Amino acid sequence: MIRALTGYSTRHPWKVIIVWAVLGFTLIGVSGTLMYRVTQNQTGDFLPRSYDSAAALRIAEDSFGVKPDTDAVTVLVARTDGAPLGEDDRRRITATAGKLARQRVATPSAADGSPAFLGEDYSQTPTLTPVMLAPDGRFQLLSAGLVGNATDPALQRTFKVFRDSARTEFGAQGLRTGFTGGLADTVDATDADELTTKISGTLVLALIVLLNVLVFRGVLAAVLPLIAVTLIGGAAAGAVVGTALLTGIKLDPSTPSLIQVVLLGIGTDYLIFLLFRFRERLRARPEADRKELAAETTGRVGTAITSAALTIVAAFATLGVAGFGQFRVLGPAIAVSVLVMLLGSLTLMPALLAACGRKMFWPSRALCLEPRPGLAARLGTLTSRRPVAAALGSFALLALLAAGLIGIRMDYGFGADGPKTAATATAAEISRALPAGVSDPTTVYVTAGPDGSALDAGRLDRLGRALGAVAGVGQVGATTLSPDHRAARIDLYLTADPQSQQARDVVGGPLRAAVAAHTPAGLTAHVGGTAAVLVDVATAVDHDLRIVFPVAAALIALILLMLLRSLLAPAVLLVSVGLCFAATLGASTLVFQHAAGRPGVAFTLPLVLFLFVVALGTDYNILITDRIREEMALPGPARAAVARAVRHTAPAIATAGLVLAGSFATLGATPASRQVGFATALGILLSAFLLSMVLVPALAALLGRSLWWPLRPRPTPEPAASDRYREPVGS
Q1: What is the pLDDT of residues 660-718, one digit of tens each?
Q2: Which residues are within 8 A (CB) of 213 and not within 5 positions of it... i.e. 6 or more apart?
Q3: Alpha-carbon span 151 to 186, nearest angstrom
Q4: What are the residue ranges of helices labelled H in 101-218?
Q5: Residue 99 backbone phi and psi in degrees, to 5
Q6: Disulfide engineering: 218 pairs with which of 132, 361, 468, 626, CB 3.0-4.6 Å?
């Protein structure tokens, strides 16, 4: 199958290139338009329906008309001179709020001039209701609501129109406004990170081009990887969006950017693997036809690339068994996109090699020069001669980093590391006068029993008093009944930030205990809100970690068994990447929890890091072990074979590792994904430079051909010198 795909692509390169160009450019536009229709930004919607906060969300929607995609914004209104609001001020605020609540806000065109109809149309009339007056009377809080996906630039532009209109209307009354919470936080953070994101994206593209120029010294070899990955990535994004539309699943807003980073990194890696081996074959057989050499190269390397890609697919596909929806949709989305990248690696990339041939490396004359041993050759020789020292040194470094796992904690908060914006300043002003949770209340929903009786607010007075007595609850709102009096809601304003550990401790402990103890007989109560959702997310994630880790490890082991046809070699690789995972997570804990003083590491980090480090790190191990087996099939000592394998493969692994690490490092440009960006980049660098170049070769040198037990490679006669693959470092 692999050779059939690569063979057709190298025989008909221009047909394949044209098909991918049309497909890629078409799906780039389609996916960009439809991506926000298949994403949702409400964390609670990813929880299984059996969780308490998920049940509260359903009551809010069914009984109180709360739309699931409503984005609440807290609006602060105060006098410009800082004086307390008088009766006339409050009347003007009420009248102006009523006027704004009757004005329809149209979705404007994008900044690039593309009309609004090319994206989602979020034109709507926002809700605007009074919330409370500050104790000192210096500001009034209003609650505004817009419906839509908060991460969609079209809704963000719609909110900006509403925000500007509110500022103008209240400003005409001598009043100032501030906006915080939900959509306002997202818009301000996006604007603050926009320049940093663009700069980091440009830098990683420049890194890829620079590395390819330094390594291959060819114009096309520097540019074509980016063009190819862009086309394949566009097709992959279209496949993910199409799958989501057909199945009705909703993606987390971070999924598209994560897919983009993954595809940029692994796609460039795979093309680098092919370029190194193609250049090697061109040097060995300068008289051969370029299409023939491209077919030979991609047919041989295609097996390792396929195994590496399927390892990633298998690892992320295991997330489909997770209970937490954010994980459950992330896994299949990345798996689908990687499968598309694999198809492109076996078709478009071979076609590019066949079409360009030696011109791929123009104007470099390295193809005509005699290769010289370099750093990789010296590393291979040193590792094979002193494998015990290399292995012990590698284990010691990994163990030292893994020691950072002592005392590790999970942090389920969001946005704590965000930039200082107008929204955060407004939130700080509110928290100085009111409980921290006033702009994001925790809500207790009570529903009537099956007897059909209606609720009465007085019946819930005892519950309200009990909730107010809970330590950490700063204020209790009035009981509000649903229109049919079959449900009631009680808003609670916590003294701690709803995203903080203190708030989660209150909600998950004494608050839910008070609800269980004081809910009147025959009634059912559920606790909702951000803190309640995060408590349930913590429970769901802990459950998923115990399932996904062993399932993913078993699938990866199965793929390695099938590829390497050995029992010992897969065990060596799994142990090494497992140590690398522990070392990377330990280093991240040292940096963010112990050194930076964060409450813990991001709750998604262990699972995402496990999948990326184990799956992507296994790519490099597959490449080096595949070459070790190939070299051990030749006559001579096993340690000499290991040295040759490192010499030939280390440059490709080093280049690919730097590219992939640089791609993930761009995630660190935004506070929300800073930990993931740092940890994955570090894990990939450890996998590439420590595991694949030192630890695995050292273990292979120690074990010799026993590494392939029970099917040891049998040495075959050494081929003619003109047909040997020799790849110098830095050539």
Answers
A1: 888 778 777 676 678 888 888 899 899 999 999 999 999 999 988 888 887 665 655 55
A2: 221, 222
A3: 7
A4: 153-171, 183-216
A5: -65, -45
A6: 361
**Residue 722: in which H helix or E strand, if any?**
none
3-state secondary structure of 76: strand
- Residue 494's DSSP bridge partners are 473
126 phi, psi to nearest 5 deg: -70, 155
Do the beta carbons of residue 353 and residue 298 sit within 8 Å? yes
Residue-wise DSSP of 17-39: HHHHHHHHHHHHHHHHHHGGGGB
Give which of 702, 417, 421 is closest to 572, Cα–Cα.
Answer: 702
* CA 151/CA 527 separation, integer angstroms: 26
Is the full-model pTM beyond 0.90?
no
For residues 233 and 264, the answer to whether their CB atoms sit within 8 Å is: yes
Task: Give strand pairing partners of 76.
Answer: 141, 178
Beta-bridged to residue 175, according to DSSP, are 79
- Nearest CA-CA partner of 308 in 347, 351, 270, 264: 270
Which has the closest alpha carbon to 687: 603, 628, 624? Answer: 624
Dihedral angle computed from the Cα positions of residues 339, 343, 344 and 349, in that order, rounded to the nearest 10 degrees: 130
Of 416, 707, 425, nearest to 569 by C-alpha is: 707
Query: Which ranges of the chain have pLDDT less than 70?
Result: 41-45, 110-119, 366-373, 413-419, 451-452, 669, 671-672, 711-731
What are the residues whose beta carbons fall under 8 Å from the beta carbon of 53, sequence distance 6 or more?
A: 44, 47, 526, 527, 528, 529, 532, 533, 535, 536
The residue type found at 187 is V
Where does residue 112 rank: exposed (0-12), middle (13-18), buried (19+ CB within 10 A)? exposed
Q: Are 119 and 152 in contact (CB under 8 A)?
A: yes
- How far apart are alpha carbons 602 and 608 in whole angstroms? 10
3 state SS of 147:
strand
716: left (phi over 0), alpha (psi -120 to 50) or beta: beta
Distance (Å, rounded) from C-alpha 699 to C-alpha 588? 27
Which residues face 601 on adjacent strands? Answer: 410
Q: How many Å apart are CA 604 and CA 607, to the nearest integer? A: 6
Sorted by sequence, the CB contacts under 8 Å of residue 464 that are 6+ apart come out as: 476, 479, 490
| pLDDT reported for residue 726 | 41
DSSP classification of residue 633: T
Cα Rg for the chain, rounded, in angstroms?
Answer: 30
Tell me the CB-side half-sphere exposure of residue 307, using CA atoms within 13 A: 26
What pLDDT, on the 0 to 100 scale, is given for residue 450?
76
* All residues at 6 or more sequence positions from 444 whose CB lies less than 8 Å from its CB, including other chains: 463, 467, 489, 490, 492, 515, 525, 526, 527, 528
Residue 294: C-alpha distances to residues 356, 357, 483, 631, 698 (Å): 10, 8, 71, 21, 32
Helices and strands in the chain: count of H runs, count of E runs:
22, 11
